[in-house]
């Protein structure tokens, strides 16, 4: 093992089993620079889901899929009782890190395996059952919006709309999932509670020397799909006054998005991560550009002001570049907090086990943001080295991974006993 494992109650054997499974998971969709590419319903995602089903079944968990392909490993010790749903997502961004989401799914599974063994040995029957979950398409990179599987499970997104969503090649979610056997017909197991552990994807825990983040609320998000409409023209012969250059309009918007963040330093994060140019040809003025504009904010008043300024700029750019701009909000969520009793339960677990811990907000989106609107939900973080994420260089130290597993197991144990 690379580093010492300073885990309070996770045995060395359990830690090694976890790290061995994590190394195996990281082989699916592995990229040459140490990252992964396993976008929703891709070959790599399908292969890892099949491997994970085998792992769950080898530990006596029954594997089920709901109508949007969420994958569940069920342990039903109390027939008819609802479930503690613990897990995260295994799908990734195109060139991403090994830890984002995948760590939380595997830690959820190993926490459940540890509890199943413990309850079997002590002939204990918990009040609630356990459901390990791998949510479908949390990243929203192939199919927009993100957090798709948990949005359908919590009723935020109609399943028909989700299944009809197409990727940039025109393949729908339904078509991508149909041959895999992952499309169930049910709504998934009824939840009583939810727990998710995830890498922080920021620098706060590392800078503070804190091992466990107790997530108390999330930043708000507004994600726009923006279409800039111009007119195709010869990039040489057409005189400048006759042009309706969609790429020029889009470029003005990309620059504005960054300037907007600079107007609210530290409080607003913005980016345009995806941009499709049509016809994207060397000697042609672009007639259409589609881009995804992402705003994140810790203060809803600031976000409202930023959105208002953005809409003003849309109108200005239409005039300046002589183009048309239309936009839809593909996804948004507010700053709603996690239940304080869940934060308190997580704090007590970290204290009992002796790990440095502290409250933190999440800036990134997670499936637990959906789940906390349905049931009491606990969200935990472990540190990201240098805050690097959505990048093949993403890294979290082994002993932090195992410390997170330790605290997650304690949290799920207490939730399951009610
Ligand atoms: O949007 C998000 O923050 C998530 O990573 N999909
Ligand atoms: Mn994630
Ligand atoms: Mn992510
Ligand atoms: Mn996320």
From TrEMBL:
Keywords recorded for this protein, A-Z: Hydrolase
Classification via InterPro entries: Amidase_Cbmase, Bact_exopeptidase_dim_dom, Peptidase_M20
CDD domains: M20_bAS
Top-rank lineage group of the source organism: Bacteria
Pfam family, one: Peptidase_M20
Entry similarity comment: Belongs to the peptidase M20 family.
NCBIfam families: hydantase, PRK09290.2-1
Protein name, entry field: M20 family metallo-hydrolase
Organism: Agromyces neolithicus
């Amino acid at each position: 093992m690379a580093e010492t494992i300073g885990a309070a109650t996770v045995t060395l054997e359990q830690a090694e089993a976890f790290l061995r499974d994590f190394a195996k998971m990281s082989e699916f969709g592995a990229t040459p620079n140490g990252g992964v590419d396993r976008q929703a319903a891709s070959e790599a995602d399908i292969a890892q889901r099949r491997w994970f089903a085998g792992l769950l079944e080898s530990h006596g968990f029954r594997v089920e899929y709901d109508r949007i392909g969420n994958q569940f490993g069920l342990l039903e010790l109390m027939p008819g009782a609802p479930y503690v749903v613990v897990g995260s997502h295994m799908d990734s961004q195109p060139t991403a890190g090994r830890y984002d989401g995948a760590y939380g799914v595997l830690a959820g599974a190993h926490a459940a395996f540890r509890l199943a063994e413990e309850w079997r040995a002590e002939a204990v029957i918990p009040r609630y059952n356990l459901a390990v979950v791998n949510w479908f398409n949390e990243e929203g990179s192939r199919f927009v919006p993100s957090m798709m599987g948990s949005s359908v499970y919590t009723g935020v997104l109609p399943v028909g709309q989700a299944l009809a969503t197409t990727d940039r090649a025109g393949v729908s979610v339904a078509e991508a999932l149909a041959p895999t056997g992952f499309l169930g017909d049910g709504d998934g197991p009824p939840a009583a509670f939810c727990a998710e552990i995830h890498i922080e994807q920021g620098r706060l825990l590392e800078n503070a020397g804190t091992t466990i983040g107790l997530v108390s609320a999330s930043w708000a998000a507004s994600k726009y799909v923006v279409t800039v409409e111009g007119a195709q023209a010869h990039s040489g012969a057409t005189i400048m006054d006759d042009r309706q250059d969609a790429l020029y309009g889009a470029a003005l918007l990309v620059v504005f998005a960054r300037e907007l963040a600079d107007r609210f330093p530290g409080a607003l994060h913005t980016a345009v991560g995806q941009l499709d140019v049509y016809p994207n040809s060397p000697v042609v003025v672009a007639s259409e550009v589609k881009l995804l504009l992402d705003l994140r904010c810790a203060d809803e008043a600031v976000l409202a002001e930023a959105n208002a300024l953005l809409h003003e700029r849309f109108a200005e750019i239409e005039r300046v570049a002589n183009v048309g701009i239309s936009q839809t909000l593909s996804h948004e969520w507010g700053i709603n907090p996690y239940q304080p009793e869940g934060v308190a339960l997580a704090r007590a677990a970290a204290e009992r086990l002796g790990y440095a811990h502290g409250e933190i907000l999440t800036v990134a989106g997670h499936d637990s943001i959906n789940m906390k609107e349905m049931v009491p939900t606990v969200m935990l973080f472990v540190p990201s080295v240098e805050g690097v994420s959505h990048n093949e260089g993403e890294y979290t130290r082994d002993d932090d991974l195992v410390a997170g597993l330790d605290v997650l197991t304690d949290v799920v144990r207490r939730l399951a006993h009610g």
